[in-house]
Structures are given as C-alpha cells and as structure tokens.
C-alpha cells in the first residue's frame, strides 16, 4: 500500500513526560491536566445522562430485535487501539452473523454477513450505543477519532506517516471525520487520506466548543441520509 500521508513540516513526537503529543517547538495537544479534566468531565456527564434516560428503554428494544433476528450474542466485543496505542475491548451491538472475518474484513455494501436488523443499526449508527459504557470505563470519549480494529491499525501505521498521531487522544463514539462523510468502508486513497487528515486536525485543534459542534453535527447526521454506513 502506498504512503498516504507525507511527512509533515512539523513532525510530532511522543514525550514521556506528558500525557499527549507535542511539537519540537513545545506546543501541547490535550496534554495539560486542566484540558484533560474538562474533556473527561464532559464525557462523564453526557454518557451518564444518556445511560440514565435513553438506555433503559432503547437498549432492551434493540436487544430483543437482535435476538429475534439471528442467533448469537447481543453485544459484540472487538479489540481496538485506544489512546497511547493501548488495546481495549470496544462494545457494539452485534450486526453480523458469526463469521471468522469479523475482525479482519470490513463490512461492504450488500455484505451477506450483515443481518437484517444489523443493516438498520449500522445505517443509523445505533450499533455504537454500547460504547457509552466504554466512555464510563475511560477507554473512549464521546467525541474523538474513531477507533480502528487492531489489524487495520497495523496495516495503516505501516503505510501512513504520522498515522499514530490520532492516538494522542482517546477514540470517540463520533468524530470529526465521520460527520464530514468519512465513515464506513475504506475503498480508496481518498477515504483513508481524508479521515486521517481530519483526525489530525481534531487532535491539534481540540476545544470543548469543537466537541459540542461535532456532537450537534452528529445528531443531525443521524437523521440524514448517509450512504457510507452499511
């Protein structure tokens, strides 16, 4: 696979003294304790409200539909990379029948592995709802770069310069790249290039206001047509 991103004019490196990435000039991205505390506070408040008021009725409804539609567990757990490149188990509602390629092969249009209920859940992004528990556990944020499956990360990190810079922050349930159209199956150079560039932009320009904007845009995107989700 070709190199998707060229080396930047301002290369990043990981500092053992800080909790995030800095440039050679000393600029810090989401590393100081105050910003980390603000982002964590937002994550906790929003996820607790969602779990308290939305989960009690939506979770059982989706669980029943999944169980009636196909055999298998309701929750699917996939190993993914998080902040600092540490692995964690990412929770999702199961959208596929049991198969040996669930961790290595992306879902594609008219994928026979995807169940009938799974198609709706993936299209509406409702399959991501269990990740609010990941937020409470501290593995994820409400907003951040979407976590990729471990095999994909190994592949992309080999072929894309500065790819791991997106792991300077916790992965998110929703992200800037996704609400700008870069979600779903990666089919071309443009798909991955646009996604990583927006992930890097988010890390470098994070603010609480930006998180609120992405959250607002995410709510709008859920009710709009997006052909990338399948």
Task: Walk me through the structure.
The chain is 42% helix and 11% strand. The chain has 230 residues and is α+β, with helices and mostly antiparallel strands. The chain has one domain (13-222). The strands form 3 sheets. A 3-stranded antiparallel sheet has the order 1-2-3, with no helix packed on it. Strands 4-5 form a two-stranded antiparallel ribbon. A two-stranded parallel sheet has the order 6-7. β4 (75-81) and β5 (87-93) form a beta hairpin. The protein is globular, with a radius of gyration of 18 Å. This is Undecaprenyl-phosphate galactosephosphotransferase. Residues 39-223 form the Bacterial sugar transferase domain. Keywords: Membrane, Transferase, Transmembrane, Transmembrane helix. The chain crosses the membrane at residues 44-68.
What is the number of helical segments per DSSP (H or I, 4+ residues)?
8
Strand content: 5-15%
Shape: globular
Q: Write out the strand line-up for the largest beta sheet, numbering strands in chain order.
A: 1-2-3
Structural category: alpha+beta
What's the average pLDDT? 84
- Regions with little confidence, pLDDT below 50 for 5+ residues: 1-20
- Determine the N-to-C terminus distance: 24 Å
Question: How is the biggest beta sheet arranged?
Answer: 3 strands, antiparallel
Order of helices and strands: EEEHHEEHHEHEHHH
Percentage of residues in helical conformation: 40-55%
Q: What is the number of independent domains?
A: 1
